[in-house]
Amino acid sequence: MKQTLNIEQQQTLLAQARASIVYGCKYKAYLAADKNLLKLAAFSQIAASFITLKTKSSMELRGCTGTLTATKSLLLDVIEHAYAAAFQDSRFAPVREDEIDDIHLAISVISPMELLPVSSERELLANLRPNMDGLLIEQAGHRATFLPSVWEQLRDKQSFLRQLKQKAGLSADYWSADLRAYRYTTCYFQEPLEYEP
Fold it and tell me: What gap in Å lies between CA 67 and CA 39, rounded to an integer?
């Protein structure tokens, strides 16, 4: 997958994500992907994405949904996850039509994942690259990920890993030789805060 997108392509995807939410508010259904856009290589490539919604007034999380596994075109993935972030994130009530102007959108296009062959927590921490790596951990049915953007809130490696383990339902000090860790990067872009629909 080509992970870099130019500014025009990024703006197009942000506009499609926003259109998906507006359409979802009005019709309670997915927006159909634009067939002309699907003909373009940047949008037809098979890719995985996460969509993050925040409120512009407070910049608090309002929804976040996505996948780490690329199974469909980037355009379709973005449209579907924008809808899911707005209406299907179980942590939040569905976005209402009167909230749309206060929603700020960000998109993370996910790179292929890289298994980190580590035998200790210390080795895992040594391999983590702050402000660059997303991390996925798996252990006996427990699974969780943090996108690279989480480094904005959790700036040191230990806090990042400890909170990720807790998100996965493990204790903060948990370690097992069977724990699997994968890192990935993202092409991250967002609407300007002064965005006016």
Answer: 23
Contacts of residue 41, defined as CB under 8 A and 6 or more positions apart, other chains included, come to: 2
pLDDT digits (tens, 9 = 90+) for 100-135: 999 999 999 999 999 999 999 999 999 999 999 999
Q: Which CATH topology does 7-110 take?
A: Glycoprotein, Type 4 Pilin (3.30.700)
Cα distances (Å, whole numbers) of residue 142 to 28, 45, 77, 110, 188:
32, 30, 25, 21, 26
Range 114-184 has CATH code 3.30.1490.150: yes
Cα separation of 99 and 122, whole Å?
44
Q: Give the distance, in angstroms, between the CA of residue 52 and the centroid of all CA atoms in the same chain.
A: 6
Residue extents of the structural domains in the chain: 7-110, 114-184
Do the bridges between strand 103-110 and strand 134-139 make them parallel or antiparallel, or are there none, so unpaired? unpaired
Structure token digits, residue 72: 């469909």
Nearest to 90 by CA among 123, 59, 60, 65: 65
Inform me whether the pLDDT recorded for 48 exceeds 90: yes
Phi-psi region of 99 (alpha: psi -120 to 50; beta: other; left: phi over 0): alpha
